[in-house]
Amino acid sequence: MSTSGNTASEGQATLVLLAVLCVLICLGVIALVVILKKKSVRRDTFLIAGLSDAGKTVLYTRLRYGKVVETRRSMVENEGRFPLSSDDEDSRGPMVHVVDLPGHEKLRFRFADFMPVTRGIAFVIDSTTVARNVRDVAEYLYDVLVNPHVQKLEIPILVVCNKKDMLLALNEEKIRSLLEAEIDRLRTTRAAAVESQDDDRNRADEFLGYENETFKFEHLPNPMSFVPCSLISEDNGDGIHAVKDFIQELAR
């Protein structure tokens, strides 16, 4: 009886040990998968965002093909992985992944899907219409800026002030001031909306800049810069070169 009892106890101990080993192996496999998944996320994407007709797709084609290509309003992304175009045919820029997002108001939210892998953002503005469309422009830019990935990863944003060569175009300093003033107003209304819902969880993420101070872009943790540009004019390359320099610097 004693021998039989010992054998049964040893069998139970073996089963328990095997069960513990199986659990440990499963946990190890899960941990390995999570680690590999995190390592496999490559932040190598550059987004082109902005309202419709701002010139986003023109920018995309100039980056990809080095020239202005006839475009039309699209309801889907233009996306590709390619070397940046160069004035020197024997020299090509680095291979980059660029996504041109649709500017339609019902599709703008798609930018959030790309944020975990985004390295930088070119936000294109029509310098001739920004004064009358400043609310829409500011709301879109605000949504980009309060995105958790933009804040956590401090994703750089280059605001491309397009159509600078046109008569009604505002300069980049005026556009910057208009957007700061409008975002300051948006900040107040959105903070009030959050408070009215008794939801403090997202209040910190929703609020841009410093409390009790007028909003300025330099208050943000992520780099913000503005560049004047005339994307449709192939003879004026300063703006497109600034965009390429922005991408190349981040793609290194």
Question: Describe it for me?
Answer:
Helices cover 45% and strands 15% of the residues. It has helices at residues 2-40, 56-65, 111-114, 134-145, 148-153, 172-196, 203-206, 238-251; strands spanning 45-50, 78-83, 95-100, 118-126, 157-162, 224-228. A 6-stranded mixed sheet has the order 2-3-1-4-5-6, with helices on both faces. Helix 4 packs across helix 6. The protein is globular. The model is unreliable at 33-40 (pLDDT under 50).
SSE order and pairing:
Blueprint: H1 2-40, E1 45-50, H2 56-65, E2 78-83, E3 95-100, H3 111-114, E4 118-126, H4 134-145, H5 148-153, E5 157-162, H6 172-196, H7 203-206, E6 224-228, H8 238-251
Parallel strand pairs: 1-3, 1-4, 4-5, 5-6
Antiparallel strand pairs: 2-3
Helix pairs in contact: 4-6
